[in-house]
Structures are given as structure tokens and as C-alpha cells.
Design a protein that fits this description.
Blueprint lengths: L6 H23 L6 H15 L9 H7 L12 E3 L5 E3 L3
Antiparallel strand pairs: 1-2
Helix pairs in contact: 1-2
């Protein structure tokens, strides 16, 4: 399928895929949440980190649009994910 030549190389590739899959599955199973929706959101974040996908965040502007009662000025802030998994504003 991937054009890998050599029995040992195919074995090593297969082993790497299995090891990655088991570790990812364990990380996904370890997610704890209060409800199904929160669990799926957290599982998606874990998957995105493992696959090195950019993380998605709501901006305060998007939240404000959903809440017409907000009296705060329009402020857009970029969020950054630290290596330890904590989230911070781009300035902090």
C-alpha cells in the first residue's frame, strides 16, 4: 500500500502504526468530562494535538455576537496553546 520494500521495514512500519494507534486511543479514552458534548470537544482537542493540527478557539468577538446583551467593546484576542496544555492570550 505504501510501497515499503523489505519484510523487516514493513514490519517496523506496521509496528509503529499499531503503537501510535494504541497510544492515541489511550489518550482519547483518558478524557474526562461532565457530559457527552464536552467529552467529544475534549477528545477532538486531543486528536488535533496528536495530529499537529492548529487548535481552534472562539474569539471574544464571536462570543459577543452570540450574546447581544454584552456591553463590552469589540476586542479580538488571539489565544495560544502552551506546551503544557494551558491557554493564554497572545500578550501573556
Amino acid at each position: 500500500m505504501y510501497g515499503i520494500r523489505g519484510e523487516f521495514r514493513r514490519f517496523c512500519f506496521d509496528r509503529a502504526v499499531i503503537t501510535f494507534g494504541k497510544a492515541l486511543e489511550a489518550a482519547l479514552d483518558a478524557v474526562e468530562a461532565k457530559n457527552d458534548k464536552q467529552r467529544e470537544t475534549k477528545r477532538q482537542r486531543v486528536l488535533d494535538r496528536w495530529l499537529d493540527r492548529p487548535l481552534r478557539y472562539r474569539t471574544p468577538q464571536a462570543t459577543k455576537a452570540a450574546s447581544p446583551k454584552s456591553t463590552e467593546p469589540d476586542v479580538e484576542q488571539e489565544y495560544v496553546m502552551r506546551g503544557d496544555g494551558s491557554e493564554v492570550g497572545a500578550g501573556g
